[in-house]
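In response to the reviewer comment on reproducibility (Comment 2.3), we provide here a single inverse folding case reported in full, input and output, so that an independent group could reproduce the run without further information from us. The structure tokens appear first.
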């Protein structure tokens, strides 16, 4: 007599559905979105991270206080001795190119004073102090030569009077403009293009006002010099912050 094993209760239920009655894993809780921390103190120079900017800013603050407190005759003599006009560039180019960058035209209340601190701090944090100094100096020197050499040639050709050789010219604005152009190349696109467009618009507005066209052209030239350094400073930034 053949024995037939009894069926297990429920064994014939939904035979075609695999893994029936299996326990599903509990869903993982959603991770909260990370909110970036706002650290405004990173906008300011510090001795450890940005020694070049901090030291240079302290020097500019000292010369600005001197210009504000010293007798006007002494201040004018200092400005004149530091001027990068054609006459001084012919006699002592290295001296005036360096000393002219010790003053802020307009003093500590000048917009270039604030721009110097913010831009140089951000640039030095990304590429280091020595390289940031090279960018600043390149803009200061090259834009000065690009504006003063044509003046000298125009005087020689008789298109400008001889007094143009002694035009008072000093300040950090060319270096700040070049550093701004360079920094834009290290920022994300949503910051890069507004920064460049806004800076260029301000400089073009000054040029159209025609109050000091040679200096205003120098600012645009310096901004272009900064933009031209993008391939180099991006390599520097990759080395500085791998």
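Designed residues, in position order:
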């Amino acid at each position: 007599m053949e024995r037939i094993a009894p069926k297990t209760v429920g064994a014939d239920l939904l035979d075609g559905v695999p893994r029936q009655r299996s326990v599903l894993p509990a869903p993982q809780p959603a991770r909260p979105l990370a909110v970036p921390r706002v650290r405004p103190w990173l906008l300011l120079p510090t001795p450890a991270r940005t020694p070049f900017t901090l030291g240079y800013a302290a020097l500019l603050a000292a010369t600005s206080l001197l210009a504000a407190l010293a007798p006007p005759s002494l201040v004018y003599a200092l400005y004149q001795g530091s001027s990068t006009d054609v006459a001084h560039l012919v006699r002592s180019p290295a001296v005036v190119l360096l000393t002219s960058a010790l003053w802020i035209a307009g003093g500590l209340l000048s917009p270039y004073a604030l721009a110097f601190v913010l831009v140089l701090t951000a640039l030095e944090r990304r590429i280091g102090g020595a390289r940031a100094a090279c960018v600043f100096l390149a803009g200061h020197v090259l834009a000065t030569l690009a504006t003063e050499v044509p003046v000298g040639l125009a005087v020689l050709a008789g298109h400008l009077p001889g007094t143009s050789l002694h035009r008072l010219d000093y300040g950090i604005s060319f270096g700040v403009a070049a550093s701004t152009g360079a920094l834009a190349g290290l920022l994300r696109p949503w910051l890069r293009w507004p920064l460049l467009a806004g800076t260029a618009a301000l400089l073009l507005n000054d040029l159209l006002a025609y109050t000091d066209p040679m200096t205003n052209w120098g600012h645009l030239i310096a901004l272009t010099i900064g933009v031209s350094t993008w391939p180099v400073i991006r390599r520097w930034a990759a080395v500085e912050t791998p």
